């Protein structure tokens, strides 16, 4: 009880004392410890305008218009067989190289087309000015053998990768398949046990498998109308790129396979992801920073299911993240909804999450996450790590149906500041069979920590949290399972709170 503020204890008692009015309404004049509402409203409007300007300027980026005489080279003309048994690697690579030569001499983009068929291949190098056109009923099949990838450097293990390329992309309506099931040592509905190519010294640990598709140090990248499926490891990797568009892409990974992330965007600027369908085991859309900052990422109109986080910033977070917009996204039965695992000192600012429906559920402790719909943490990874801060986050029009509450956890030198929740409905109900009361700080930090109760919103090291028009309900059936604290925080680490139109109570109660 010491853990909660006096105010919360008061309302908490109120819930039990007065069953008829089993809800809380905190009015500004009673409760605002922060900015006056007028200022809040202006900030809100301003962020809204900014986010609209941002999403407009990126979602309307023009499609590639191929001139009528654009060159198209078929891989079959270069000797590809497409029977799924013989390797077509050198034929495909020759077609790509010829296309690239055409581009460098004429400056016009060239297509490498794959007629219907299954094209087994070792690693391919995509080059400037080349569009891989994997047509409907064509499949590019990644080789499952270690010798299909370069012996020396595991960071270059991809089925298809573009390095230092410009005007480059993949389309066509077909599929690129990583044969992920060939990498499973033991199928397990909790979590598959995977092979790791860690015997040769080129890669250490248990994550030594090839990624599916990568764009590295590239500009003007387009990936559209394609299915990327069964990756052995990360699926689509965008590294130090500028001006990338990913649209109408389906990513289908095994739900039980670890590390088969959907889209990992690293150290890249001006990335637009739209109309994507991602159904996979590990993090679905995952911005990271390793060698430089990440600016201007928008993801809109997507559907996501994952056994990890649907959207996650981090955990690699050495540099800043700024100007990200996530809009019109459905998150279905995922282990976590919107997450930030800031661990390495990078700062996060100006992020909008709008029009998002989230349903989360708990699967298994071997996966990070405990069904938190929103999870923001900045604890340093280990004693040598710096603390990054998070500021100016807006969550607006968010509907949540989840097995756990919201977790907002800064750190002493990595505060969460200026966090806004607007127009949100949260329904908390636990239907799977797991014990409440554990808080998940992984990776690093304090790990899994025992906690007495499960709260609607847990806060620590927060400076400036404003809530407007937010309704929190929990299932009547769960009364015995510690669902009884709407807000939990220590006043010593949480300041500048403002609650306007916040209500909390049982699900089936008429108010
Ligand atoms: C990148 O490509 C350009 C030509 O497009 C070349 O001049 C440059 O050397 C390449 N850089 C690297 C690091 O390969
Ligand atoms: C996607 O590819 C299919 C098959 O090639 C084609 O029929 C369709 O028009 C393409 N759709 C878009 C949006 O490009
Ligand atoms: C190699 O990977 C396996 C998992 O496939 C793991 O059990 C083992 O510890 C790894 N070995 C090293 C040296 O990392
Ligand atoms: C971004 O890439 C698209 C497609 O490759 C291209 O049409 C557009 O001109 C690029 N924008 C900038 C600012 O370079
Ligand atoms: C992204 O923009 C930042 C800020 O301008 C810059 O420092 C960084 O080099 C850019 N990254 C890329 C990959 O263009
Ligand atoms: C991010 O987007 C803004 C607004 O469109 C633009 O002014 C800025 O240059 C972009 N930043 C980078 C690093 O490209
Ligand atoms: C939201 O995204 C879905 C696709 O997931 C799309 O069908 C719908 O039109 C989008 N809604 C708006 C308002 O853009
Ligand atoms: C969220 O759910 C509401 C009500 O079911 C629906 O109207 C809305 O379109 C959904 N939005 C998204 C992004 O799924
Ligand atoms: C994050 O912000 C702090 C405080 O402004 C600053 O000291 C630190 O260098 C920033 N981190 C990065 C990676 O720039
Ligand atoms: C929240 O629920 C109320 C009442 O059912 C509804 O009017 C409102 O549109 C909902 N808002 C969101 C963001 O789901
Ligand atoms: C939130 O939802 C309301 C009602 O559907 C809509 O008018 C408003 O534009 C939405 N806000 C944002 C930022 O999308
Ligand atoms: C529920 O949890 C208990 C205790 O951990 C376990 O013994 C039981 O098998 C579980 N039941 C289901 C259906 O998972």
TrEMBL record:
Statement: the UniProt record of this protein carries the keyword Repressor: no
Q: Which GO terms describe its molecular function?
A: polygalacturonase activity
Q: Which keywords annotate this record?
A: Glycosidase, Hydrolase
- InterPro entries annotated for this entry? GH28_Enzymes, Glyco_hydro_28, Pectin_lyas_fold, Pectin_lyase_fold/virulence, RHGA/B-epi-like_pectate_lyase
- What Pfam families is this protein classified in? Glyco_hydro_28, Pect-lyase_RHGA_epim
Please name the GO terms of the biological process aspect recorded for this protein, alphabetically.
carbohydrate metabolic process
What region holds the Rhamnogalacturonase A/B/Epimerase-like pectate lyase domain? 74-122
Query: What family does the entry list?
Result: Belongs to the glycosyl hydrolase 28 family.
**UniProt protein name:** Rhamnogalacturonase A/B/Epimerase-like pectate lyase domain-containing protein
């Amino acid at each position: 009880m010491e853990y909660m503020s006096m105010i919360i204890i008061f309302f908490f008692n109120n819930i039990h004392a007065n069953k008829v009015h089993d809800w809380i309404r905190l009015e500004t004049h009673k409760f605002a410890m922060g900015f006056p509402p007028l200022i809040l409203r202006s900030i809100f409007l301003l962020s809204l305008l900014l986010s609209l300007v941002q999403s407009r300027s990126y979602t309307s980026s023009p499609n590639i218009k191929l001139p009528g005489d654009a060159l198209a080279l078929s891989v079959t003309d270069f000797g590809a067989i497409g029977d799924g048994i013989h390797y077509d690697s050198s034929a495909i690579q020759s077609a790509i190289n010829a296309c690239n030569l055409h581009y460098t001499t004429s400056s016009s983009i060239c297509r490498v087309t794959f007629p219907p068929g299954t094209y087994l291949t070792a690693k391919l190098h995509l080059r400037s000015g080349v569009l891989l056109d994997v047509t409907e009923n064509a499949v590019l099949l990644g080789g499952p053998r270690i010798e299909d990838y370069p012996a020396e450097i595991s960071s270059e293990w991809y089925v298809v990768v573009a390095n230092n390329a410009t005007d480059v992309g993949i389309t066509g309506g077909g599929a690129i398949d990583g044969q992920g099931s060939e990498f499973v040592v033991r199928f397990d509905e909790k979590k598959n046990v995977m092979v790791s190519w860690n015997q040769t010294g080129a890669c250490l640990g248990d994550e030594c498998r090839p990624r599916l598709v990568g764009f590295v140090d590239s500009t003007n990248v387009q990936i559209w109308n394609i299915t990327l499926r069964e990756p052995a490891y990360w699926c689509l990797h965008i590294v130090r790129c500028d001006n990338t568009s990913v649209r109408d892409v389906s990513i289908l990974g095994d739900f039980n396979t670890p590390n088969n992330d959907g889209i990992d965007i690293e150290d890249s600027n001006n990335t637009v992801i739209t109309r994507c369908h991602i159904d996979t085991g590990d993090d679905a859309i995952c911005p990271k920073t390793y060698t430089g900052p990440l600016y201007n990422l928008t993801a809109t109109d997507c559907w996501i299911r994952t056994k990890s986080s649907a959207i996650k910033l981090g955990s690699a977070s050495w540099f800043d993240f700024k100007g990200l917009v996530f809009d019109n996204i459905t998150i279905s039965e995922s282990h976590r909804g919107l997450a930030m695992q800031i661990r390495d000192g990078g700062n996060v600012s100006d992020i909008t999450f709008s029009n998002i429906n989230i349903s989360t559920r708990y699967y298994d402790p071997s996966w990070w996450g405990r069904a938190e719909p929103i999870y923001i943490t900045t604890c340093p990874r280990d004693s040598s790590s710096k603390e990054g801060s998070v500021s100016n986050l807006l969550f607006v029009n968010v509907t949540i149906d989840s097995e756990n509450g919201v977790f907002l956890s800064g750190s002493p030198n990595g505060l969460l500041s200026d966090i806004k929740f607007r127009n949100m409905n949260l329904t908390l109900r636990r239907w799977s069979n797991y014990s409440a009361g554990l808080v998940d700080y992984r990776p690093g930090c304090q790990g899994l920590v025992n906690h007495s109760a499960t709260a609607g919103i847990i806060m620590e090291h927060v400076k400036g949290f404003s809530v407007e028009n937010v309704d929190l309900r929990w299932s009547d059936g769960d009364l015995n399972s510690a669902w009884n604290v709407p807000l939990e925080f220590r006043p010593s680490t949480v300041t500048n709170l403002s609650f306007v139109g916040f209500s909390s109570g049982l699900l089936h109660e008429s108010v």
